[in-house]
Amino acid sequence: MTATEVLRRNSRQSSYWLGTAGAVVYAIGIVLQAWQPQTVAVTMTLRLLALIAFTAFAVRKRSLTVWIIWGMLAGVEFGLDAPAVALQARVFSDIFLRLIKVIVAPLILGTLITGIASHGEMRSVGRLGLKSLIYFEVLTTIALLIGLVAINVSRAGNGIEASAQQAHVAARTDVRVQTGAQPDSALSWQQFLLHVFPENLAKSIAENQILQVAVFALIFGLALGRLKEEQRAPLLRVAESLTQTMFAFTNIVMYYAPIGVGAALAYTVAHSGLGVMTSLAKLLVTLYVALIAFALIAMLPAALVARVPVRGFLSAIAEPATIAFATSTSEAALPRAMEAMEAFGVPRRIVGFVIPTGYSFNLAGSALYLAIASIFVAQAGGMHLGWKQQLFMLFVLMLTSKGVAGVPRAVLVVLLATSSIFQLPQEPIFLILGIDALMDMGRTTVNVVGNCLASAVVAQWEGEFRKEAPADEALAALTE
């Protein structure tokens, strides 16, 4: 290693220490402010010094995730030190909200059509495809149920009801004005069922009727998958291009995220105080406890029932799981995951089918997160959702979450789509974005590990686990 490389490595290490120290000291300052309000001068000085240190780290790091965290810290400080001005900053979070909302319908349309139509060949795969889909949907449903139970037990969103409730009332009023609905008029089940199906796609998109868009995309994708390859390919390329363009659009909008998140937190802290930080901490703990519960309640029994060697499996997926946790991107771990499972004893044809298919249909980590986040948003808005509404929300999440596991923060779009369908307040979603980087690491890891386990389980069901020697390149890749 050259002297220049050593200096660069030392510089990076010192930069990380600076950022970590800044974030930790800032958190300490917040805790002291909450416990000892009379020490405001001391705690403010401590927080400002910590924020300066973290700003220096953010400037050197130049990472969007780091800048979102910076926006979160700066927004909290702004709301504490200048609440009167911070209350006027809500317009900047509203701008971010509008930019994200315009993405939702096209992205849901493109991802669902691509995810369904691109697997039109499943009919020829037959038994393998059916077993994979059954496994995917059973595990995803269990993840959603665990998420609902966890957030209903922790009730992490209750601490920020006041400000979100006002926003929710305004949002419902705005919806009634746009749709002409009468206040407190309940739809009959026939009217609700009819409302699910679109009569005009352009109208559904214009009115942000996301469930109607999803139903159209589902039927369109199924129809497209029935066509011959030469007839399906042109439209499928258009759908894929639309999806990739909307992901690129999202990436551009996300550059504004630090300002949007900071403004949302500044407004909330100025309006509700520091209770919001306690709620976000409870939300983070709730997610990781639920992910661990899912691993023990669903994934481990699935491995044991299918007689997958658990220790060998954990050893095989250690590296792709680490990559997924560090990058928060399932696609970054995909090549290593496929090599690892082939070396573990899953035939290449099963690996090549199950794992890529799982990236559209087996999103257990993302599904669990979405269940928790959706109910958190409802709790923040002071809404009480009955078990029937929550079960229906499970169905909607299973439909709208397909195809977004490989992209960081893409679940924000799904969460906004869900909030639109159920008329949930949208401001708390941007509070979640402040800790989304920490939550994304856990849910992405579960997505990757779940897809790897699915390939091993299906291989066992097919009676082909460890029946053929893995390719030399797969073994070589894991021994590098």
From TrEMBL:
Q: Name one Pfam family in it.
A: SDF
Q: Which domain of life is it from?
A: Bacteria
Q: Where are the transmembrane segments?
A: 16-35, 41-59, 66-89, 95-116, 128-151, 210-227, 248-267, 287-306, 359-380, 392-417
Q: How does the UniProt record describe the way this protein sits in the membrane?
A: Multi-pass membrane protein
Q: Which GO terms describe its cellular component?
A: plasma membrane
Cellular compartments annotated: Cell membrane
Gene Ontology molecular functions? symporter activity
Q: Does the keyword Cell membrane apply?
A: yes
Q: Does the keyword Transmembrane apply?
A: yes
One Gene Ontology biological process: dicarboxylic acid transport
Q: Which UniProt keywords apply?
A: Cell membrane, Membrane, Symport, Transmembrane, Transmembrane helix, Transport
Gene3D superfamilies in the cross-refs:
Sodium:dicarboxylate symporter
PANTHER family, alphabetically? PROTON/GLUTAMATE-ASPARTATE SYMPORTER (PTHR42865), PROTON_GLUTAMATE-ASPARTATE SYMPORTER (PTHR42865:SF7)
Q: What is this protein called?
A: Dicarboxylate/amino acid:cation symporter
Q: Which organism is it from?
A: Alloacidobacterium dinghuense
